[in-house]
Amino acid sequence: MIKTEIAKLKQLLSKAKADFHVCLREFIRFSDVGMARFQDITYRIISSFGIDVSNENAIIEFENFCRINCFLRYRKTSPSDLIKIWVKILNPQSIPVINVTNMEDFFERFARGTLQEQPTLITTTFAKHMIDLFKLEQCMIDDDRIDMIKLQVKIEDGTLSTDLFNQLI
Q: For the chain, which residues make up each domain, given as ranges?
């Protein structure tokens, strides 16, 4: 389905303009990638596709443009890409250990978005349940630190399904 959509878009765009690309600033401004999301979360999503978010003039080539949009609209890409994307979103700096408070805050804000000013019972509960799941899967070093290497292995081996994380999109 995704390959068919990409093929159709490529064919359509090749007729209009052979080398389609868009700069990061305009992509964020005119697409729904940043809609109702905190800026740091938007940047995590975009950087998970290998785009340098520190440069607002960074160019997003056609294929990445399609991949990002397919991920955001349909929560689909190849299974191996989906794993890489979520690992990068969860841990953009590839830090081996992350504080539970930081990860819980990330999940809460990702689930809530910018439409609500304050955390809600639903978003707070979701974040806490995600951390509880990491505890159940033995991805914790102690009660306040997450072993990101173990978490990555659990995502890669399918123990923690990317469908679980796709709920955030």
A: 2-77, 86-166
Question: Measuring CA to CA, which residue among 82, 80, 72 is closest to residue 41?
Answer: 72
Architecture of domain 2-77: Orthogonal Bundle (1.10)
* CA dist., res. 18 & res. 16, Å (int): 7
Beta bridge partners of 59: 23
pTM, entire model: 0.84
The C-alpha atoms of residue 28 and residue 42 are separated, in whole angstroms, by: 8
Write out residues in the chain with pLDDT < 70, as ranges: 1, 9, 12-19
How far apart CA 54 and CA 141 sit, in angstroms, is 31
Residue 118 gets which letter from DSSP?
S
Q: Which three-class secondary structure state does DSSP give residue 61? A: strand
